[in-house]
Amino acid sequence: MKILYYDCFSGISGDMNLAAMIDLGVPEGYLRQELAGLLLKDYSILISEDIRNSIKGTKVRIRTKADSYEHRNLNDILQLIHKSGLNENVCSSAERMFRTLAEAEAKVHGTSPDDVHFHELGAVDSILDIVGAAICFDYLKPDRIISSAVELGSGFAGGEHGTLPVPAPATVELLKNIPVKKGSQPFESTTPTGAVILACNVNEFTDNLSFRIQKTAYGIGNRQSAIPNLLRVHLCETLERLDKGDHSLIECNIDDMNPELIDYIMDKLFAEGADDVFITPIIMKKTRNASQLSVLCSNKKKEKLISLILNETSTFGLRTFSVEKTALPREFISTDTRYGKITLKKAILPNGDSKFKPEYDEIAAIAKAHNKPIREVYREIMNDLSQEK
Predict the structure, then answer these.
(1) Torsional sign, CA 114, 14, 178, 151
(2) Phi-psi sector, 216: left (phi>0), alpha (psi -120 to 50), beta
(3) Which backbone phi and psi does 132 adopt, to 5 degrees?
(4) DSSP character at residue 285
């Protein structure tokens, strides 16, 4: 299993995260090309090697013209994202982060997420940091993202709203129920942008490293201090053959709603982090036909998904169960076939062997392009893979 591990001993900011991702192997040209789709103006991204406390890493600086800042609201930013031409995974990830950030800012300032017009939320560098994070995660495609406890820093920091205590109120809101540390750095070491990247993407927070480290990257911050102002990120693989973890199963029965709407709700549940969503036909009292909606998710995602179900469906209640999920470590690889390159999902079995599954969308596209039955294309590709073994 491919793991991205954040070692936040000196906190995290949006530019430190971008720098670490580039240092880890995300191509600079690819990132610039993808970000260009946002059609933002009057900015430049400076990427360079730098050193902190004798440790070499990558530094990212985003420069904008002083008069280029706009007080965009959440809807303005979401329109930028969805008109960018970025793929669906990136858009969905970026939207989730911006919605979460807007909710935190709104709660702190006593307004609604749609009415947030803060300078920080609309600033070009924040947009590039957050959308850039979504692009990098999509490029690296980790199976799981894990982080250490997060260093917050100490003291006071200035901003549009005056001098505020460290951590900033929005950072505190974003990192609720997440393990944090405070005081190792005499400045704001975790920003709201850095906090929302962790809050929306990390699957687990732990200081217990039980991985095989394959590569280490350093994103360099803007401060000089006794403890190096660095974000350290490891690319790892798990030592275990099986991935086990405590999860929740959320269920409800629906008998008074147009079934066509459930497909839309399923897509939203997956977009918000559900591991699996499925429908079971059932018969309820008075022999009414109904659907049982079941959602498997990590405990961290449970409350958000419960809220989504209650808001989006006609149900008046639901039930939850604690379950232990066991999953095979998997990765996505590219391989050559008689139809060209295709993507395979590769899973590692407990005995060390592996099994493969072609991505359905690619098989369907090949069948359509060659005017052949999809079952025939699938059989040919599986035969090719079997012979390669």
Answers:
(1) negative
(2) beta
(3) -60, -40
(4) G
Residue spans of alpha helices (H) in the chain: 14-24, 28-36, 74-82, 88-109, 119-122, 124-140, 169-174, 192-201, 260-271, 299-312, 360-370, 374-388
- Give me the helix-helix angle, 124-140 and 14-24, nearest 10°: 30
Contact between 299 and 274 under an 8 Å Cβ cutoff? The reply is no
Distance between CA atoms of residues 282 and 323, nearest Å? 22
pLDDT in tens, the chain (389 residues): 789 999 999 999 999 999 999 999 999 999 999 999 999 988 999 999 999 999 999 999 999 876 556 678 899 999 999 999 999 999 999 999 999 999 998 888 788 887 776 555 568 899 999 999 999 999 999 988 999 999 999 888 766 666 778 888 999 999 998 999 988 888 999 999 999 999 999 988 988 777 789 999 999 999 989 999 999 999 998 755 555 667 999 999 999 998 889 999 999 999 999 999 999 999 998 888 999 999 999 988 999 999 999 999 999 999 999 998 887 877 778 788 888 888 888 887 776 677 888 888 889 999 999 999 999 999 998 888 777 65
Written as six digits, the tokens of 31 are 């990132």
Amino acid at 305: L
Residue 280, classified by CB atoms within 10 Å of its CB into exposed (0-12), middle (13-18) or buried (19+), is exposed
Taken in order 80, 82, 83, 87, the sign of the CA dihedral is positive
Which domains, from first to last, does the chain contain?
Answer: 2-238 (no CATH), 244-327 (3.30.70.1380), 330-388 (no CATH)
Q: How far apart are CA 188 and CA 222, in angstroms?
A: 11
Helices 124-140 + 192-201 axis angle, to 10: 30
CA distance 385 to 389: 7
Question: What DSSP string describes 197-250?
Answer: HHHHH-SEE-S---EEEEEEEEEE-S---SS--EEEEEEEEESSSSEEEEEEEE
Distance (Å, rounded) from C-alpha 102 to C-alpha 87? Answer: 22
Where is 331: in which H helix or E strand? strand 330-337
